[in-house]
Write a structure and sequence with these properties.
With about 425 residues, the chain is α/β, with parallel strands linked by helices. The chain has an 8-stranded mixed β-sheet with strand order 5-4-6-1-7-9-2-10, with helices on both faces. It has a 4-stranded antiparallel β-sheet with strand order 12-13-14-15, with helices on one face.
Length: about 425
């Protein structure tokens, strides 16, 4: 009987791909070492630039319009790969922030460590090391870790460890926190047997600089809470209004690569050669790849596919990435959907194919500054055909609606985190 390998998946919230690969990459010794011993996918895209939508894609292998998972709608009955691995005798463990979504997807886990929402590795790192050292995780196991070090807290501030709060670790707090993360990753990697463990390091989405654009006003209102409920209630309405009227609302419609491109590293068991993959890769491909490596039956009607042929140097036809923006309100419609190919980025209003049409030629305009949709109607039609084919080829799940009580809990949590 073949012994199944262990699996460790680490998602780093708000981790920018260009910080670990390419011209802007930082000298991160431990992440670089992982890339050198594994496979790095340099053109990996999430379908949704938001945590819940993105992780919904990752853990189901399905597009968001198929799974129905978004920031307001969790659809607990959607089939997750965790359930499939559990069926095939995998033991499940996790270290995650205390958010409702994480609690929902790990209900059947054997054991889990939960930390306060914006905790850092300085607070939880030793726990992770102890779990890996303890040998108490029964083989074969999957260990899922989600890190919040690169995500500002609800007031728009980083929690930079004192040791790394120095200019030699970068001019920005984001960079300094990334060096801290890299330090802890090195200690974690030391505890892993790469010969019998699949290691996956990725992100949910890049760092969103527009999300906390109005934090100066918001922080002032929060600090002035002592002035009384009338001022504070007015202030909360002002916060909501400034978010709606500001560029943040407009920026939530656009879908540039800097909101969609994420790092993806595979290393360890089943990864025999170092490679840099430049093909378009989607985060819905991650779990189908893991399943292929450990030789599990293919999940039925899944949108993602295995990348193992690419890892083995074989040819694989490139598939465009489906993209959509994340919902920031149940009341306001700013929905955008589109596709990203090697040469073009195309997106438009979800409900009106002639509204807010964007087309960019990435071969000459990688920063997506010149919308050529009006000049290139033929290419727009080609992209629209690709988009429609993606939607048609993806069979819909029958998803259960989130109950009123669950919706209320989700909204309360979103308020606590500063999203609404």
């Amino acid at each position: 009987m073949t012994i199944k390998p262990n699996i460790i998946i680490i998602t780093i919230d708000s981790f920018n791909a260009d910080k670990c690969f390419g011209e802007k990459a930082l000298p991160l010794p431990n992440i670089n070492s992982l890339i050198d011993k594994g496979v790095y996918c340099s053109n990996t895209f999430t379908s949704v630039p938001g945590t819940i939508g993105s992780l919904g894609c990752l853990f189901t292998g399905d597009y968001p319009f198929k799974s129905g998972i978004n920031i307001f709608q969790h659809h607990a009955k959607t089939e997750y790969y965790f359930e499939i691995l559990k069926f095939f005798s995998y033991n499940m463990y996790s270290t995650l922030p205390d958010f409702i979504y994480f609690d929902e997807i790990t209900k059947t886990f054997n054991d889990k460590d939960v930390y306060e929402g914006y905790g850092t590795l300085d607070q939880i790192g030793e726990k992770i090391l102890k779990r890996l050292e303890s040998k108490k995780m029964n083989n074969p196991w999957l260990y899922y870790i989600h890190l919040m070090d690169l995500h500002e807290d609800a007031t728009g501030k980083f929690r930079t460890p004192e040791k790394f709060n120095d200019e030699k670790y970068g001019s920005s707090e984001y960079d300094r926190n990334l060096f801290s993360v890299d330090h802890w990753l090195g200690r974690i990697f030391e505890k892993i047997n790469f010969e019998n463990t699949i290691v996956v390091l990725t992100a949910d989405h890049p760092h969103n600089e527009t999300l906390f654009k109005n934090k100066k006003i918001e922080n002032f209102i929060i600090k002035c809470k002592f002035l009384g409920p009338r001022f504070y209630n007015f202030g909360k309405k002002l916060i909501k209004l400034t978010r709606i009227l500001s560029k943040q609302q407009k920026n939530m419609f656009i879908l540039p690569d800097k909101q969609l491109k994420i790092p993806l590293i595979f290393a360890g068991y089943g990864i025999n050669d170092h490679k840099i993959i430049h093909h378009i890769v989607r985060n819905i491909d991650i779990f189908p790849t893991i399943s292929d490596i450990i030789e599990l039956p293919k999940k039925k009607n899944v949108d993602g596919r295995s990348l193992l042929p690419l890892f083995q140097g074989k040819e694989l036809e490139e598939i465009p990435a489906y993209v959509e923006n994340k919902k920031i309100s149940q009341d306001l419609s700013n929905d955008a959907i589109g596709v990203r190919t090697s040469n073009y980025k195309y997106y438009r209003n979800k409900n009106n194919l002639k509204s807010n049409v964007h087309l960019y030629d990435l071969t000459i305009d990688p920063n997506e500054t010149k919308n050529i949709a009006k000049k290139e109607p033929r290419i727009v039609l080609q992209m629209e055909k690709i988009l429609e084919e993606i939607k048609e080829n993806s069979a819909n799940h029958e998803c259960s609606d989130t109950s009123d009580e669950e919706t209320k809990k989700i909204q309360e949590e979103l308020k606590k985190l500063g999203y609404i």
